[in-house]
């Protein structure tokens, strides 16, 4: 294998359960040009520098060779979401979205949801009562964050099942499942994106006329220093929030339980020390990040990184999961250590595109893992490694079969 085929090995489904040996090989050549012209970057300090470098664009329209064709938004007739824009347009759109989501304009929105989050995750785990086996993905890690993001946006509860289907179809368009028609999967994803956009557009129109205390109402009615999003921008942002607002959290919770079930001493400790949830989730974001790679970056100028010149207009992939295990930055990086100090991981990216929903994802994972550690009796894996999603970017088990001796009643909260 050459450095020019490393990306093929990392994204090969056969290596999905353990891509880390390939990341270790990548770090021996911090910047590896691939046979297709992509530049793959795998070391912590180089990734961190590029995440803060204004010469690295997030807009795929800047590619010298747009081999990938139209973006998903363009195919659905929507403008790019702000994660695919550069300043100053990115900054305007992100500021407008942040006004509806959290600090500094709504500093209590996420904190104020703690009680509701606990009720939702408690109800989800209650559904496991009487089961000796269950799928942690389908029964816990998926329904919990999907319900949360729907409540946050203001989606009527009776419509939540529709979101499950749309989200599955949209994310399924990114999966590389052998034996299936990729073109048909793309068409299904595009159709779901259009239907979801139309549905959210209708809800936004309703909130514009009759606003409530939810994010769709804020997007529709807020008038700040930057003005207001256009109706089509409101739809694009709402679609982004729905998909990004739960997909990564599903993987974070699932990767977290897989790690803890493999190392049950940490699961037992979390059950006794719920305050451990905060550093434990940070270590999970380093050790098994839900987003493995940031693929959509483009150089706006020639950039020299670790002795390699990446030419302007070239595609750049940042291997966050590789940087998170760089021994130059993290001592003993292949060891899961909830007590790790100075844990400035790349699990949420960095720079101006630092994950928008990080505060919510952290809180959801902390609550879910704590509740699972306290309520599951003698949990154990039924399949290891479990079957993984085909998607190499959003890496996590598609199913996580678990056996238990029962479930405990929920503990009273303080």
Tell me about this structure.
It comes from Streptomyces silvisoli. InterPro entries: Cyt_P450, Cyt_P450_B, Cyt_P450_CS, Cyt_P450_sf. This is Cytochrome P450. It holds the Pfam family p450. The structure is a single chain. It is built from 16 helices and ten strands. The longest helix has 32 residues, at 231-262. The mean pLDDT is 89. The protein has a single domain (3-403), classed as Cytochrome p450 (Orthogonal Bundle), CATH 1.10.630.10. The protein has helices spanning 6-11, 20-27, 44-51, 72-75, 89-101, 114-126, 136-141, 143-153, 160-172, 182-209, 215-221, 231-262, 264-272, 277-287, 320-323, 358-375, and strands at residues 31-33, 39-41, 56-57, 133-135, 294-299, 303-305, 308-310, 315-318, 380-381, 401-403. The protein is of the alpha+beta class. The chain starts with 5 loop residues before the first helix and ends in an 11-residue tail after the last strand. The strands form three sheets. Strands 1-2-8-5-3 form a five-stranded mixed sheet, covered by helices on one side. The chain has a three-stranded antiparallel sheet with strand order 4-10-9. Helix content is 46%, strand content 8%. β1 and β2 form a beta hairpin. α10 packs across α12 (231-262).
What does the secondary structure layout of this molecule look like, with pairings?
Layout: H1 6-11, H2 20-27, E1 31-33, E2 39-41, H3 44-51, E3 56-57, H4 72-75, H5 89-101, H6 114-126, E4 133-135, H7 136-141, H8 143-153, H9 160-172, H10 182-209, H11 215-221, H12 231-262, H13 264-272, H14 277-287, E5 294-299, E6 303-305, E7 308-310, E8 315-318, H15 320-323, H16 358-375, E9 380-381, E10 401-403
Parallel strand pairs: 2-8
Antiparallel strand pairs: 1-2, 3-5, 4-10, 5-8, 6-7, 9-10
Helix pairs in contact: 5-11, 6-8, 6-16, 8-12, 9-10, 10-11, 10-12, 12-13, 12-16, 13-16, 14-16
